[in-house]
Design brief:
The protein is α/β, with parallel strands linked by helices. It has 14 helices and nine strands.
Length: about 325
Amino acid sequence: MSSTMNNQAAVSVIIPTWNGEQWLEQLLAMLERQTIVPLEILVVDSGSSDATCAIARHHNVRLVTIAQQDFDHGGTRTMAARLAVGEILIYMTQDAVPASRDALELLIEPFSQNEHIAATYGRQLANSDATLFSKHLRLFNYPEAPEVRCWADRAVFGFKTIFISNSFAAYRRDLLAAHGYFAGKLLFGEDTLTVAKLLENGYCVAYVSKACVYHSHNYSIWQDFKRYFDVGAFHSHQAVQLEKFGGPGGAGRKYVCSELSMLAAEKKYLLLPESVLRNGCKFIAYTLGKHYTKIPRCWAERLSMNRNWWSSQPDK
């Protein structure tokens, strides 16, 4: 890919959707106002029953529809990548809205500056309705300082070396294709595994903190439990690949201390018990997820945010 390429002719934006009418109009309107004009916006809808497809057609995007049961985090994104025509593939989720007109331009800028960068991801800012817990998660995972991480950095960052989010991420298409795009039939984490392969083969991932989207979730304690159960199960299921990067590296302890410090600084002392409960539940959920093979499948389905995935797993 030439560093002098015409960015306006090089970018395909890919957005998987399902019942996303709440956010899609705003997202597509912001994409149309970007300082670089994507060659195409490819929306892959998996059986929406609301106005999602109508909104997409109104904005004259390239719309592809699949059955809801056919959606797969990695497989669907791989299918979209093969349909896309751009040299750079920008993945977004339906609820991630660019915070500025130059968000896409900033996100892909590192590709023309460093040929070893194969993927980039932007900063996720909390929505205006975000709880303090949701706000802290975004601040912890998406700080102000930019960063480039490569294979040699795994001794320092552990799992964080391969952190990325397909809610707002860009990939060099040629390198993504050369590494098999995204693995299919995963609980989630298709982006993480792909970055792991890219780094192992000598490439790097860049965190572009100036490229921002608004994207956050106000999860309940039970939803957080399910999410961390899935994280633990993913880490166990993909242990062979992930263990090459060490481990969490004390990130959990750092997160808890950071959250408690934020609540104290905001003088939200009444939320301290909820913080302790939330983080205790996350720890229990992650531990259970790590040992999911010892748990009856019917329990795992109830503890997971992605119940359908478990039915595809072989009997123990």
